[in-house]
Every structure is written in structure tokens, then in C-alpha cells.
Please model this.
Amino acid sequence: MLTPLEILQKYWKYPDFRENQEVIIQAVLAGKDTLALLPTGGGKSITFQVAGLAKDGLCIVVSPLISLMDDQVERLKSLGITAIAFSGKLSFDEQLRILDNAIYGAYKFLYISPERLQSELFNKKLLEMNVNLLAVDEAHCISEWGHDFRPSYRKIALLREKLPQVPVLALTATATPEVVLDICTQLQFKDKTVIKQSFSRANLTYTVAKINDKITALERLFNKDKSPSIIYVRSRFLCNEIQEQLNYLGFQTSIYNAGLLPENRKQNFADWKNGKTQIMIATNAFGMGIDKADVRWVIHYNIPESLESYFQEAGRAGRDGELADALLLYNDADISLVKNQFLTTIPNIDFIKKCYKNLCNHYHIAYAENQEQAQDFDFDEFCVKYDLKKNKALNTLQLLHREGIIGLSENFGNKSSFKFLISNDELLLYIERSKAFEPLLHYLLRTTTGAFDLFANVNEYEIARKLSISKNAVIEQLKLLEEANILIYNNTNTAFSISFLHIREDDRTINRIKKNILALHKQKEQKVKAMLDYVVQKKQCSAQYLLQYFGEKSDLFCGKCNNCKRQQKLTNQVLENIADSILNALHNEALSSQELLTQLDFDKTTILEALRILLAQNKIGVDKYNRYFLA
Model:
């Protein structure tokens, strides 16, 4: 069996491990339950991948995102390592085949979402597998105090009961002391081994700037610095809007959000990573697994929902160790928007109960039954049928998904979009020649704005209702118009699927998660408050504030953020005032430092510093009695 270092060199071609990676691997190989806290870019995935390869058997990896699982599986396969993802989008026969192959040793890594841990089939087959390690990625999700609490993560404890001799490696890039303790408790650590790398990033400057004209600020910045950059924005609409404005100003940009087709996201990322474009404009869908070390700027165009999210995203700058900047832009409107966006999105218990019952009735799920097999789901039709407000219904279904009651396809909630490729005049001429498309094109012209310049959302179900045709007919016409180069159509509305992971018990089902829902609301309030405090506070070094939030004491000041510069400017002004006071006091007679301390109403340290400066400037002198006099 190869040593961990030999495995690293064989598959990844790295000469040596990064800080703490080998310590983490050796702890796991010694059978210790281990929590690894490594900053963004610290190489978390390699720790469990090398550890899994260093032992006989299968490593099970619990991961929250299907896209992240797929990326890691493809990466491992490219290295010649056998891996597979076990997700809800697979048919029953595919699930059975994968699990049987895992039993017979066909894979070294089996990736699974926390929701699928409840699968009866998986739990039945699990006992026949030779599992050598349980890796829990993004482990902060298990804690209700974490920034992305997912109650389904609590089901991981059931694996511990079935696999009592298998060590656990939990990994995260962001965790407060409270979350660290909660992770160890929830995962039932036998011995609490926590390996933490300092969150301090000496090469990274955190700056918060209050700016009304953000585009002008970006223009000035990118005219000065042509380095690779990321701009994080709140929505897909802003992705398109900011890209349009920056492209007009002559910058090369890419966009990345969940509304793009997978092949478009992949191409946009490749263009940016390879230097074809300078700036990536993205929603928070652009995150985990992003591997580009030379990013010099990470800019938040909007205020994030939590310091954990901000710290993780900002940490994607300067992963090569060179100087880099994290810049957060805000104005007064952003403060109000954050409160409204993140604190008013949780539906009340009565609405959740109503929505859940409607969902079960929609699929004819009888009381005390469930349906784990994924089924197609038309969200718009569901909302119209049961007269539900879409935003509230969307939040409810996503909450039920997080609680592990239902399973939703990853792109659930995405809206289709389109953009005209020809001018308004050319489109009107086309309509005259192509009467078959006239009702649809006229409807799009009436109901959307800016679609000649930016992508606009399109609701195929609503169009079908208005035009009295089927939804499939609308989709087919839009695809034909795309083939004719009249428009670009991003169709994300046809791949929704839903599964029922718990037996139906109506109100009793929801009552069991009521406590979690209320805790989620409280947690969001606390995290939004901490985020806004960070944005508006002007006294403390930004880096120091962040480190203290994550439980790391620091007396150091970065000297580079706005707050440090402001304090430095204030200190210089104070020293000038004290120096003037000292010179005035010495005008009539020589005085000792003690006499100056008695006369002047300033602290000792600052007075002594002012005396040192005046001596260096030859404005004062000192006699043999240690009294200061005017030079």
C-alpha cells in the first residue's frame, strides 16, 4: 500500500502536502474522528481523497450539492480513480446497479447527498459495503448555528450507528466555536480531534466601501488593474445587467449563474479561467470547487446574507499567496434590501402545511404513503391549480427539501430566459413573413422589456395559458426561433423533478419540523445582523473583525483596510495636535516627560511617541537632567 505522500505524488503530481493536510490524513488513518477547518483554497478535498486511497475499501462522501459531487467525481475519474455519485436523479435500476457495484468494490469513492441517506435501498445495501471512511464535506451544514443549516445532515448520525468502527472526517472552511462544538456533537465524535488552520490571510485585504455609483467605481478599478477578478451579485438579472455595462465600457467579461445551461456555464468558466475574459460576474452559484489561484479581486456588488458566505467567497482571491483584495460595495438602499431579502422569505407554519397537503394531493400520495422515485414537476401549473403565491410556494418547497421531507431537482426554481438576436425593426419584418410565430412574438414584445439587450425571464406555462396552446408547443416554438437565429433561449423549466422521502402525515409531518423552522428564522436574523454590523462599523480592522467572529483572537491590524487607514489618519492628526501642545508648553521653560504628562491631557503612550517624533525632527532637544527644550 502506498504512503499518503506517494499517493499525492502519483495522482495529483504535487511534491508535498500543504499546511495541515498530512496531519489531518494521519489522524484519520489512526482511526480518529476528525474535524478539519481549512480556509477556502486550503485543499480540503485532497485530505479525504488521499486518506480514502490509503486504505482498503470504499470512502463514502456526503456532499450538499449535486454539481459539486459531479465535478469531484469527474476530477477523480480524470486522475484514474474510480468514483460515482448516488443522487435522486437516477432511476431505481441505476441506483441498484451503483450500490451493487459499490458492494463488489468497483469504486473507491461513493458521493451521496444528505437527503439520499434516508433511502431504504441505500441503507439496506450499506451494511454489505466495505466502508473505510465517512467524509462529511461542508460540515457546518449539520449545525443549526451554521450559515447553511440543512437538517438532512443530521441523518448522518444514523450512518455512525450502522458503521461504528468507521472514522469520520468532517470538513469546512467556515465555523464559529459554537458551530465547531455542534459539529462534533451531532456527528457523535468518539474523541474530539479538531485540526484548525488559522483563518488569517496576510496577503488579502478586506475593504468595505460606501459607494452610490458602483459601475463608475468598477470602471476606474478595472482600468487600473487588468488582473483576473470575480464580481458577486445578488441575482441573475444583475449578472446580465452588469455584464452589459462593463462590456460597453470595453472590458472582457463572463457570467455564471444557475439559470445558464450547463454547457454555457462550463464554457464561461473556461473562458475566464484561461484568461480569455478578465472578469467573472456571478451569483453565489459560482463557488465550491472553483480552482483559479491568481484571482486578485473578489468584489461583492451586493451585501451577502452572512459573514460565513462573505468570508468563503472573498477567500477565492489570492489563493496563490500573492497580494489580493476583497472589496464589498454598498449604499443605504442595500442595507434595507438585505433585511427584506433575507428576513421576510420564510413562510409561516400554516402556509407550509397547506402547501405540503396540496403537493401530496397533486401527486395522489395517500396518507401514510410516500414515493421516493423522482417524478416530473411543473411548478407553475401547481401554483395555478392551488392558487399559491409563487415566491412563498418556492420558499416552502425548498424548505421541505432542506428538511429532507421531499427531494427536488437541483435546478428547481430556475426560470427560463431569452434574448433577441435581431433588432426590433428586423423582428417586425420577420413576424410579417412568419405568421406561425406571430402570437408568441407579439406576446414577448408586449410583456418583456430590454430583451434586445439583456436576457429576460420567460414563463412557458403562463404563455401557454394566454395563447391557449400547450406548454410543449411554446417550448417547441422558442427552440425553432433559436434555430432560426431570432433569439437565444435558455430552457430550464422542463427538468424539474420531485420525490417524497417521508410518508405522508400532513400536519404531524410539519409539526415535527416547526422547531427547525423557527430556529432557522432566528439564525437568519442573527447572521444578517452580524453581516450588517461588519459593513457599517468604522472602528475595528476588517480582518480582525472577521477573525474574531470565527473565534480567532487577534491583536494585529492589517493596516490596509479602510478602517485601519482611517484610524491611522486619525492617529497622525492626534500626534500633530499633541506635538503642537508640547511645543507651546516648552515655550517658556524646559520640562521633563513627567511634567509634560501632568500638564497635558493626553495618554502617556501618545505623548512619548510625539516627543520621539519631535526629537527626530530636531524641533526639540533634551538636557542632562532629561528635560525637553525648544531647539
